[in-house]
Amino acid sequence: MSPAEPSRIETIAAELGLSPTEFEPYGWYKAKLAPGYVPPPRRARYVGVSAVTPTPLGEGKTVVTIGLSMALCRAGHKAVATLREPSRAPVFGIKGGGAGGGRSMLLPMEDINLHFTGDLPAVSAANNLLAAMVDNHVARNRTPRLDAEGISWRRVVDVSDRGLSQITTGSGGRKLALRRETGFDLTAASEVMAILALARDMADLRARLGLIIVGLSPSGDPVTAEDIGAAGSMAALLRDALRPNLAQTSEHTPAFVHTGPFANIAHGNSSVLADLAAVGLADFVVTESGFGADCGAEKLFHIKCRASGITPDVEVLVCSARAIKLHSGRFDVHPGKPLPDALLAEDLDALRAGAVNLEAHLDHLRAFGLPVVVAVNRFPTDHEAELDELCRLAREAGASQAVVCDVYARGGEGGEELADAVASAKPASFRELYPLDAPLEDKLRILATRIYGADDIDLSPGASKALARLTKLGFGALPVCVAKTQYSLSHDPKLSGRPRGYRFPIREVRLSAGAGFVYALTNNIRTMPGLPGTPAALGIDVDESGAITGLF
Predict the structure, then answer these.
(1) Total number of domains in the chain
(2) pTM for the predicted model, two decimal places
(3) Which tens digit of pLDDT belongs to each residue from 139-150?
(4) Which contacts (CB < 8 Å, 24+ apart) does range 35-41 have?
């Protein structure tokens, strides 16, 4: 299905209520908010979109986010979608394009999936400048002294390249080229990306960059980016990247597409600044959180909302009949391979068995005091009996409403019932699951037991020592960000459905002082994944006219 022809960005900006001095066009179809733009006070209802635990099939969360915003506009509301910028790692790797699809996509689709306005390259440049300055600082014996063995800062790249995950630098033998073991992470997994997403203005960005801890002194004290003089130059590289990007949907409604932290590793939500602008300009803001509600939505509530001061009014939980059937554990599905015929056949028993995953997400979303609308995303192979049963199961499990949506095939028209359900949702009594003054270990335990379904947590000796050290250093009042698999509520991607009766292992704890959270890693979570057996890059090409194919 070919994308629609976009409207000129000046038209989108004017309809949103932006004056010509409040945005800067980046070509015909995209723009950035003007430097120093001050958003109006909040007026919008804030709608989160998350999903059940994702499977290799995908539930269509981005498509539903875009389609819902378009449907709300069709109903006479001024609605804006706020979404993350796709990383080129999954675009060319396991997922393909990250700008929606069918009749519910972002435009200009090719730009958003590739270089867009240059934000991700700016993040990479700032991150890697700091890495270079760290090595130079040590090689020249500058003060404060930084122990080469204690350097924790790594380089980043926006491509899945597992060969770079562990490298040795300085192997050429030059005097000022520091030889040490290090590696690369994905740009979207970096602390610089998280900082950009959470900063409220330029002063906040500059201050957060200065707080980044790059390593330890010989006496064990933290050394920061400010200490080695790198924060100012990093801020200069990120000056324009801090400004939210304005794009549009396939029905020419507005969308802010800004920053792209991963939700299985980082906090998984678009920028605070985009949301602050959107809630002042619209009646409804529809914001997507990454992966399942146990990842992106939890981090939206505990990390991003605390940074922005915006609390959600309603949560939309996206699921599909085929994904729920897969959570029964009765089917074997692999990325890139055809779906088994048995999964596509009508199977109400498998649907009911897999609904435990839907129930788990409803339970923990409602624990935040939110009304939850379940959006059953229709696929062409779906059976009406399964869709009806899934809506019934969702309502029985506590959803305020459950509706089938068909926004991929029909655009905003296919989301009108979902828009009505969202607009009529009862007011929320939002609450976090843990206070910031709770001990770090207790915060992790609350997430593990109340959201992931574990009996308790198991801290490695190193993780336990790290928690004690961070508390002693004054970081105990930060929120926690758990890096875990997105393919299970638990730490184990093989455990589908609603795992129970297990202990949640935490092997390592790190500090993201600039981003403002403590970072807990489980099992073998990777900050630099490799390409899959059949990467999406194999299907992407350019025809003789220059048109890009294979991105959607």
Answers:
(1) 3
(2) 0.95
(3) 899 999 999 888
(4) 35/239, 35/243, 37/243, 37/277, 39/276, 39/277, 39/279, 39/280, 39/281, 40/280, 40/281, 41/280
